[in-house]
Each structure stands twice: as C-alpha cells, then as structure tokens.
Design brief:
By secondary structure, this protein is mostly helical. Helices cover about 80% and strands about 0% of the residues. Helix 3 crosses helix 10 and helix 14 (about 300-315) crosses helix 15. The protein is globular, with a radius of gyration of 21 Å.
C-alpha cells in the first residue's frame, strides 16, 4: 500500500508540474512538451499492436476455446449493459439541459472546416476489417483485423493435437509475451515524465484559446454524461457484483490516467493489462482475453458522444427530437460504438459518417473540433475505466 501511495503522489506531482510548465507559455518549452508527449504516444502505440495479438493468441492456445466461451459471454453481456447505460445517461441529460440551436453566423464559419475528413460507409468499414494479407493490419494498427487474425491463430493452436511442435510455438509466444510485459513495466516506470509533457501540452493549448469558443450546454451534456457514468453508474455496477469501486479505481488509476492523456484506449492497453494483473489481481487468462476485446467493443464514452452529438447536429438541422427519434439514435449509437477503432478522434469521424448518411448539417461538427480534445480525453478515460470494470466483474463472476 505504501508503494502504491508513493506512486500515486508521484503521478499527481507530475500532473501539477506539467500544468505549471504549460502556463509559462514559452515556445521552446511547449515544443519540448509536444516532442516528449509524441514520443510516449508512439511508444504506447508500438507496444499496443503486439500486446493485442499475443494476448488473444496465447489465451486461446493455452486456455482453450471452450473455456473462453464463458469469458466472452460475460464480457459481451457487461459491455452491452454499460454501453446502453452510458448512452441512456447522455440522452437523459440532453433532454434535461436542452442545448439550443447555434447561430447562423457560427454555422457559416465552419462550412469548410471538415471538408477533408475521411468518410467511410459501413460497407467499406466491414471490408477494412477483413485482411487481404498478414502484414497490412500490423502496419496500419487495425485493431479489428488484428483481433480477427489472433482469434483464428489462437483457436487453430487450441485445436491442434498435442505435439512437440505445438509446445514449441506456444512456449515461444508466451516467452515473447513475458518480454513484452517487461518492456511495458519499464515504460510505466518512466511515465511520470510523459505525464508532465502531456499536461504541459494540454495546458498550453487551453491557455492559447483552443477551447475558448466552447459551446456551453453541448459540452456540459457530453462531459456531464461522462462524469455521471464514470463516478455513479459504473461504480453501481461494481457494487451490484460485490466489488469495491474505490479499490478497483485506485488499482486501475495508471491505466485511466494514461488513457486520459494518450486519447487512445488501444494505445493504453499495455498499461491496462499490466494494472489489472499486477495491481488489481485479475487472473492472467481473464485479463488477457477480456481487455483486448473490451478495447475494441466496449466504448461507453463513444456511445454517449455519438448520441449527444447526433441529436445536437440533427436538432440544428431542423429535425424534431421526438421520443422515438431519441430511442432510435440511442440504439444506433450503441451499435456504432461497438467496433469503433480505439484511436484518437475515432468517435468524431464515426459520428461524421453517420450524420453524412442521415443528411444532417455536418458543418456543425467543425464547431465541435476546438473542444474535442478535452471531450476525447474524458471519454477515452471513461472507456478504459469501463474496460477495467468489465474485466473485474468477469473475473469475479468466474472465480
């Protein structure tokens, strides 16, 4: 406990130091913060791809596809439950706070703001999941394609008859995984330096006016929904399963803070898995199976963002927000969030595609861009906290 408290104090100190450095507004200091923050983001992304692959393959190969079925069932059940809850909270707060329409002047200033953003149809999205060679998903960091490959290889290994060749392959994969986790622990040990850089970078952006033009009530709905899901709904789920939310959160805090600053649940996965196994005490076969899947399908913050933003954009386009419309888009937001890439701005581009398909005025999303950095940070932290809760509840249920 003493060691955990010491680590927590160091992380808090790093947060405060970064905030102070960012307020200085020195050009060279901001450049240095951007450089260090980018280095850490790239290192997390570097480790995320092999972590996802090896975790799924070794779990299936050593634990067997039959035993994994129960784990997957629990994971999917809790994922759907928490994601629906997050979207429902967002809808409720939207109705209560009722953001007004934007002015014509504000809309006219953003007509070309998002003209160059990529827009994929669901047909293209599904095709992109199916790999046409084994190298491309690794190069692109395509999480869904990697999971598909990992499932195939892992299940294939579990079905092979016991032999010396199979044992060598499995032991080799387990050895690589141990090496990977050693590298992850080294990276986590140096993370306070990264937190200083991330916080300084964010503080500099805020003080420079990046979020000065925030759209009050809309931002309040999005962030308010995330905060309620984070501090009220998810802890209630844990309490219902007989788990202490404070204990779980304190143990998973390194992962939650890393997600806050990297804005990528996929990049945070190495830290999430290490925290779950080493700090929270989740069994290895559970953590290494549940968390890579949750990183892909458990998107609480994304579901709430898609719903609230879609309602806001459609409202400004003249669509009446009836109860039927809200319930329909609640369902659409949950289905869309599942399978969304766990990368920075993934939810933004997904919402853009949905609104383009619905014929809504997508230029409004250009107004949201200046504040999306803050929104993306909070919702990614919520996603990883939700992943942690699903993992903890699944481990508890199957003990």
């Amino acid at each position: 406990m003493h060691t955990d408290m010491k680590k927590m104090l160091i992380w808090i100190g790093a947060l405060l130091a970064g905030a102070v450095l960012g307020l200085f507004g020195l050009g060279w200091l901001n450049d240095m913060s951007d450089f260090v923050a980018t280095v850490y983001t790239r290192l997390f992304q570097l480790l995320a791809v092999p972590t996802i692959m090896l975790a799924v393959i070794t779990t299936f190969a050593t634990f067997g596809s039959k035993g994994s079925g129960r784990i997957f069932g629990r994971t999917l059940f809790y994922t759907l439950l928490t994601t629906f809850a997050a979207a429902a909270v967002g809808a409720l707060i939207y109705v209560l706070i009722a953001p007004g329409n934007l002015s014509v002047e504000a809309l006219s200033q953003t007509e070309g703001a998002i003209a160059d953003t990529p827009q994929l149809s669901y047909y293209d999205h599904i095709l992109n999941i199916i790999p046409n060679n084994i190298v491309r998903p690794l190069l692109d960091g395509n999480v869904l394609s990697l999971l598909l490959l990992a499932f195939a290889v892992g299940i294939g290994l579990s079905k092979l008859p016991e032999s010396e060749n199979k044992a060598i392959v499995v032991k080799g994969l387990l050895g690589l995984q141990e090496l990977l986790f050693l590298l992850i622990r080294w990276l986590i040990w140096t993370l306070p330096l990264g937190i200083v850089a991330f916080t300084a970078q964010l503080t500099a952006q805020v003080s420079a006016g990046v979020v000065a033009d925030s759209i009050g009530r809309y931002v309040l709905v999005v962030l308010g929904g995330n905060v309620i899901q984070f501090f009220v709904i998810l802890p209630l789920f844990l309490l219902a399963r007989g788990l202490n939310p404070i204990h779980v959160l304190s143990r998973m805090m390194p992962a939650v803070l890393t997600a806050l600053f990297t804005k990528s649940s996929a990049a945070t996965l190495p830290v999430t898995m290490e925290s779950a196994e080493q700090r929270l005490g989740v069994r290895r076969e559970i953590a290494r199976f549940v968390l890579p899947i949750c990183t892909t399908i458990n998107m609480n913050g994304c579901a709430a963002f898609i719903l609230v933003t879609s309602l806001f954009v459609m409202q400004n386009g003249g669509t009446p927000l009836t109860l039927g419309t809200i319930l329909l888009w609640l369902l659409i937001s949950v289905v869309s969030a599942i399978g969304n890439a766990g990368v920075p701005m993934g939810c933004f581009f997904l919402t853009l595609s949905l609104m383009s398909g619905a014929g809504a005025p997508v230029a409004i999303l250009g107004i949201i861009l200046p504040v999306y950095t803050i929104i993306d940070m909070v919702e990614t932290a919520e996603n990883v906290w939700s992943d942690s809760c699903v993992c903890a509840m699944t481990d508890h249920d199957l003990r």
